[in-house]
Amino acid sequence: MAPSLSQAYRRRWWMAVTAVLENLSCSAVLLGWGSLLIMLKGQGFYSHLCTENETENVTASAPDDWPSCVNQDEMLNLGFTIGSFLLSAATLPLGILMDRFGPRPLRLGGSLCFALSCVMMSISSYHPEVLSELIFLALSLNGFGGICLTFTSLTLPNMFGSLSSTVLSLMIGSYASSAVTFPGVKLIYDAGVSFTLIMWMWAGLAALVFLNCFMNWPAEGFATPEEIEKKKMHSAENHKLSAEEATGETEKLPAVAQDAQSSVPFRRSVFSPIFLWSLVTMGMTQLRIIFFMGAMNKMVEFLVTHGEEHRKPSYQTLSFYSSVFGTLQLLCLVTCPLIGYIMDWKMKECEVDQKTERRGEKE
């Protein structure tokens, strides 16, 4: 049975801390694709595409000595493209569903999708020659499940009032910093732990995310402070109107109607120039980052070999440079809370100025 909103409010700090940890381990982990690509090639995914006739393009890029070639990279990068597309493009339908059903069912479904993706990668690594095609579905579920966890966690700041921007920045920072997860997992993989065992353990972690959501997340959505204030005003107005009706007075205050008229229509907000320009710039930035992550390993190979086909970079070289990008993403977890704190601080100043102006008008 789902907890009530009052119970969830009492557990809000637990939910916020666990949401940050869950975002770090299970949200946008595909951003660390460079390290996962090396592990998948090390397990022999699509190595059957590297025929014996392509000896000049075939290398042993992983400790397990599976052959590696351009065709293999193209197929695996295609799976990353599909997964990263779902990681970004699913936000609009998720927003519609969350407005309709709340964050709880989406978070439960997202954790299940992420766990299933880990199970599929683990199972397909037993026979990669036959089951390599499952990696497409596994990466798709990974991206979709990750964005479900990220998107639902963005509603948590509504329960923190004046600290909402700080908590929101923590959620966004943990989402971006999840790129360090696969480089960290690769360190465990290089230490000798099997890829299959790692994925099964990761699926178990996703099951804990499901259990935490089932125990602590309410069925209703988290109301914003403005919505809570409107509900209080509406209930107070209804109480006043009922008292006036009981005393025979017929005058009614149209506060709710005025609020409805003063609110900006959704269509006007969507088609505003600042929103459209933000949509274009953010889309271009996201596309550029995804392209860079998909082509990063090949770019590193070219920089090391200077385009000479007979020279191939070592496994250690690729492993080191592929982990640099994910490690640098940890800076987001440090800088985002600082930005959020500054935003909360400035918003408090604006509220104080507005209250001062209202008092001056009344006097």
UniProtKB/TrEMBL annotation:
Organism lineage: Eukaryota, Metazoa, Chordata, Craniata, Vertebrata
Keyword Membrane among record annotations: yes
Residues of the signal peptide: none
Swiss-Prot/TrEMBL keywords: Cell membrane, Glycoprotein, Membrane, Transmembrane, Transmembrane helix
Transmembrane segment boundaries: 12-39, 75-96, 108-128, 134-156, 168-189, 195-214, 274-296, 320-342
UniProt topology in membrane: Multi-pass membrane protein
Keyword Transmembrane helix: yes
Subcellular location, record wording: Cell membrane
Domain of life: Eukaryota
Molecular function in Gene Ontology: L-amino acid transmembrane transporter activity; neutral L-amino acid transmembrane transporter activity
Annotated catalysed reactions: L-phenylalanine(in) = L-phenylalanine(out); L-isoleucine(in) = L-isoleucine(out); L-methionine(in) = L-methionine(out); L-leucine(in) = L-leucine(out)
Protein name, per record: Solute carrier family 43 member 1a
One annotated Gene Ontology cellular component of this protein: plasma membrane
InterPro entries referenced in this protein's UniProt entry, alphabetically: MFS (IPR011701), MFS_trans_sf (IPR036259)
Similarity annotation: Belongs to the SLC43A transporter (TC 2.A.1.44) family.
